[in-house]
Every structure is written in structure tokens, then in C-alpha cells.
């Protein structure tokens, strides 16, 4: 609505470049691509790129039935040699353990689909080397804040010489915005990474779906829209 109501021909707009937390590493030795439902959308683009590069890959496409599986004709036409179709109404559900039992050294797994699929992959990936699994989520596990299960904490903004209180009923992003601190945000579900802030002191309760295990263990950045302080105080480079 802002663009329709405010922006006029000749106005100069300052915009940021695109961000991508689900980018394809083209240096891997081999690839397994897994799509669930409309999750085929980013996966088919990856398959196209790998085919063009001549990289070895397999593609698992899962859905309730062929009639409801988007882009199926094109997937079969362009990636039939690498494709295994899993249509539930045909009794061909994907067995992740079997499909990934012989994961080769240097192989990477890319997946997009329903949360149940990604959680199952996450459990398997706990035994894999860091950076093997890459996923894109449709939605966050939960973006509902339950004050009864949260605690308030203090946030020190080192660069601004401000100290704020984040109540058990609000997110860090809400507290920063209320204090007039401009932190960019977009999804507000911990999915996009736009609201990332740098942390210089304190322990973080990470709740996003952006950072890897290694990035979380570094304890130096967090997503303000959903993550919180594990203790009573955080210091941010703001």
C-alpha cells in the first residue's frame, strides 16, 4: 500500500540487495535434492543448475498424489534420469533413512517441504558433518509468544548508551522498536534473517531457523524477532 499511496514517478528509492539463506553450493561432489509438495519450487531451480553444470545429483519429489504435484510434467521431462517420485496415494512414501543411508563423503542434501519432513531430516543430520544439510522452511515452528513460559531480561545497547527492559510478553524486536531503535525486519518468524543483531555479551536462547549449529555456538548474533536471552542480560552492538 505504501508504494501505491506514496511513491510517485521520479522518486528515488534506496533498496537493499536480495538475501538468500538457501543458496546452492556448487563445489560439492554430489547432491541429494528432496522436495515435499510446493517445496519443489526452489528445488527444481537447483536441479536445473546442477544439470547445467554436469554435477551428479538425485531428486526425490514427494506429494499426496500426481494430480496435486506442481511442475510434475517439467520435473519428469527435465530431470527424469535423476528423479524418484513418491506419491502417497500410490503407496510410494519416501523412506528417508533408506534414501540417505549411503550418503557419500562430500555429498550435500538440500530440502524444502513440510515441517515434519524437515524435522525428520534434521534428526538424521545430527550424525552428519556440519554443513551437509541445507533446508528451507515454509513457516516457523511457532511464532506465538507465551508470557507464562518466558522471563523478562535486560538489554544493553553498547553503541547507543541505552538500557532496555524486554518483558516476558514482548520480543526483543518489539522492545527495540518501541524505544525508537531502527532494526530492519521482515518475516518476524525467525525465517529470513533480516532482523539479525550482533551480541557482545550474554548467552542467547536461539529460536530462529536461519543460523547453523556452529553459528549458534559462536554466540555472537541473534534474530531479534524470536530469539531471547538465556539469562537476565544481553549486550548488543547497537
List keywords for this structure.
Benzoxazolinone_Detox_Enz; Ubiquitin-like (UB roll); FNR_nucleotide-bd; 2Fe-2S ferredoxin-type domain-containing protein; five-stranded mixed β-sheet; 2Fe-2S_ferredoxin-type; Rossmann fold; 12 strands; 238 residues; alpha/beta; globular
Can you tell me about this structure?
- The protein has 238 residues and is an alpha/beta fold.
- It has two domains: 30-137, Rossmann fold; 147-236, Beta-grasp domain (Ubiquitin-like (UB roll), Roll), CATH 3.10.20.
- Helices cover 23% and strands 24% of the residues.
- The chain has helices at residues 2-6, 40-53, 72-79, 96-99, 115-125, 172-178, 213-218; strands at 30-36, 57-63, 83-87, 107-113, 133-137, 153-157, 162-166, 196-201, 204-205, 221-223, 228-229, 233-236.
- The strands form three sheets. A five-stranded parallel β-sheet has the order 3-2-1-4-5, with helices on both faces. Strands 7-6-12-8-10 form a five-stranded mixed β-sheet.
- Helix 2 links the parallel strand 1 (30-36) and strand 2 (57-63).
- The chain is globular and about 60 Å long.
- The chain starts with a helix and ends with a strand.
Amino acid at each position: 500500500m505504501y508504494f501505491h499511496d506514496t511513491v510517485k514517478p521520479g522518486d528515488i528509492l534506496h533498496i537493499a540487495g536480495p538475501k538468500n539463506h538457501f543458496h546452492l553450493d556448487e563445489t560439492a561432489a554430489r547432491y541429494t535434492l528432496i522436495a515435499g509438495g510446493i517445496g519443489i519450487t526452489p528445488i527444481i531451480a537447483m536441479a536445473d543448475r546442477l544439470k547445467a553444470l554436469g554435477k551428479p545429483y538425485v531428486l526425490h519429489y514427494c506429494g499426496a498424489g500426481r494430480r496435486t504435484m506442481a511442475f510434475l510434467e517439467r520435473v519428469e521431462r527435465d530431470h527424469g534420469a535423476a528423479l524418484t517420485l513418491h506419491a502417497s496415494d500410490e503407496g510410494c512414501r519416501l523412506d528417508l533413512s533408506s534414501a540417505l543411508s549411503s550418503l557419500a563423503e562430500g555429498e550435500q542434501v538440500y530440502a524444502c517441504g513440510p515441517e515434519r519432513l524437515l524435522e525428520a531430516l534434521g534428526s538424521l543430520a545430527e550424525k552428519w558433518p556440519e554443513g551437509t544439510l541445507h533446508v528451507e522452511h515454509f513457516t516457523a515452528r511457532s511464532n506465538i509468544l507465551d508470557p507464562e513460559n518466558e522471563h523478562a531480561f535486560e538489554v544493553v545497547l553498547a553503541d547507543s548508551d541505552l538500557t532496555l527492559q524486554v518483558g516476558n510478553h514482548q520480543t526483543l524486536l518489539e522492545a527495540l522498536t518501541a524505544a525508537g531503535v531502527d532494526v530492519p525486519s521482515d518475516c518476524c518468524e525467525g525465517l529470513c534473517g533480516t532482523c539479525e543483531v550482533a551480541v557482545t555479551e550474554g548467552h542467547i536462547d536461539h529460536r530462529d531457523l536461519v543460523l547453523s549449529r556452529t553459528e549458534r555456538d559462536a554466540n555472537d548474533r541473534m534474530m531479534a524477532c524470536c530469539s531471547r536471552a538465556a539469562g537476565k542480560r544481553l549486550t548488543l552492538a547497537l
